[in-house]
Amino acid sequence: MASIELTWPKNLGDQKQGQPNYILFTAKKRVLGQREDILGSVALPIPIGALASSYKANYENAALGFAAGVAMQTLQNDVGASFTGKNLESLTNQTDVNATALAKDALSSVGSQTALAKFRNNVLGTVKNPYQFVTYTGPEFRSFSMNWTLIPTDSSEAGTIHRIAKFFKKYTLPNKRGLAGSSYFEMPPTFEVEMKIHEQGNSSAIDLSKKGKASGRVHRFARMVLTSTEIDYNGIGALVPTFFNDGYPTGTKLTIGLQETELITADMVDKGY
């Protein structure tokens, strides 16, 4: 594991000084296939946004259409059983379709409704059933928003906060590569994100993001990318921004957006995700 390069506040991870729990961001760049270089890491207090997770399923509405719907329903009624793959293939290819006259008439009437057909609907007070259904299309990538208001106690801490802000800004963006240095963008690094806590009376940190006795008590993170970094150097919200003598601001608000690069599936929930 990478050594922690940047930490705020100074006493982070120290049980005795009231800052036992933290979140660790480690930037990793893939080099030559499987090997990864560690570019650096930042440790900050666990923000509220790190503890909120959303699991979304995507569905969409689809319609067979009147003709296909009637044909399928009629075929199902004729054979007196549910459809099999062979039934559906037969219907799709329009070969060996054991449909009634109603189904055949419906299949022959495929096309846009004419004004006469619409008039008929109004007279009869009916419209064709589009035979709609809902189909599952897949999960969504989880995303997270985390923010901190970083108030330094002195100029030295302000310098550390400045370097932390630079770390996230830099690794949100690509490098340029290629002829004249701008033909291609080199993709930004990915991030390993780990939450670590200290139990009462236990001097060593428990990693909530790894397999172990604490796994699953809160969610683990898959590999992430930074999707946004926002910096407000007037983090204390003063009407008149203030600075230390060396120019560092007296307060910085940092907000980052992250997205996982792996879709979370049901089997991964049992592993703590």
Describe this structure in words.
With 273 residues, the protein is of the alpha+beta class. It has two domains: 6-56 and 140-269, no CATH class; 59-138, no CATH class. It has helices at residues 66-79, 85-92, 101-108, 115-124, 155-170, 266-269, and strands at 6-7, 22-31, 35-44, 57-63, 132-139, 143-150, 175-177, 184-186, 190-197, 206-207, 224-232, 252-260. Strands 1-3-2-9-10 form a five-stranded mixed β-sheet, covered by helices on one side. Strands 6-12-11 form a three-stranded antiparallel β-sheet, with helices on one face. Helix 1 runs antiparallel to helix 3 (101-108). It is elongated. The relative contact order is 0.17. Residues 94-99 have low confidence and may be disordered.
Q: What is the average per-residue confidence, as pLDDT, rounded to a whole number? A: 79
Computed Rg: 30 Å
Total DSSP E strands: 12
Helix content: 10-25%
Largest sheet: 5 strands, mixed
- Total domain units: 2
> What is the N-to-C order of secondary-structure elements (H for helix, E for strand)?
EEEEHHHHEEHEEEEEEH
Structural category is alpha+beta
Which sequence of strands runs across the widest sheet?
1-3-2-9-10
Hey, roughly how much beta strand do the residues contain? 25-35%
Low-confidence stretches: 94-99
How far is it from the N-terminal to the C-terminal residue, by CA?
Answer: 21 Å
Helix and strand layout, with pairings?
Layout: E1 6-7, E2 22-31, E3 35-44, E4 57-63, H1 66-79, H2 85-92, H3 101-108, H4 115-124, E5 132-139, E6 143-150, H5 155-170, E7 175-177, E8 184-186, E9 190-197, E10 206-207, E11 224-232, E12 252-260, H6 266-269
Parallel strand pairs: 1-3
Antiparallel strand pairs: 2-3, 2-9, 4-5, 6-12, 7-8, 9-10, 11-12
Helix pairs in contact: 1-3
